[in-house]
Amino acid sequence: MNNGYQSATIDLLRHGTIAGDAGLYGHTDIPVTESGRLQMQQSVNIDLQYQQVISSPLQRCLHFAKDYSQRQTLNLKVEPLLQEMNFGVWDGQTFDQLQSCWADLERFWQSPATVIPPNGESLTAFHARVTQFWPQLLQQCRGTQSLVVTHGGVIRMILAQLLCVDWQSADYYQRLRIDYGSITRIQVLYTDDGIYPQIRFIGRPSPAI
Predict the structure, then answer these.
(1) Does an H or E element contain 118, and which?
(2) From CA 107, how far away is CA 116, in angstroms rounded?
(3) Residue 9 near residue 187 (C-beta atoms within 8 A)
(4) Contact 51, 39 (CB under 8 A)
(5) pLDDT cut 70: percent of the chain above it
(6) Is the pTM here over 0.85, yes or no?
(7) How far apart are CA 147 and CA 151, in angstroms?
(8) d(CA 11, CA 45)
């Protein structure tokens, strides 16, 4: 190993509790509640001093990222590729409002890789968007402790790649819980031979939950 290796710590912060009834909120620009903002704040107050913040452009991530980066005098980068999956005509609808298409939703949950939300983003396209951006994120975070404010689906896609699990399987999404306001930490080693990410923990709950 070269003595000039570098490292990075990447904290993936899921946004806090949203200000809406249970439903599908992908690209819909819904805010977080005050308790959701507190979840995010308490999660980042624990054990790291970040050098930069990278955020999804959706307000449930970006409002906190802007406020936090300003208070800590940190550089903020807004990255559209960190947005949640687009659920098309289902997006922004509560589960009560989606009752008329419940059978289609059931098929989507049972086979997310083969059922595409009407006018929405396929799981394959979402996977490609996140995994193609991941190497860029690794380079942006090189040599830093970075806070990445994003969404549950994005975090699951990153973890699926690092864990080499089947991202097309419904079981993967049903069994992996990423709470609102939780932190998933990835440590990365950069050497002349390659880049080696290692998951330290997944979905550490906010103390405010």
Answers:
(1) none
(2) 10
(3) yes
(4) no
(5) 99
(6) yes
(7) 13
(8) 12
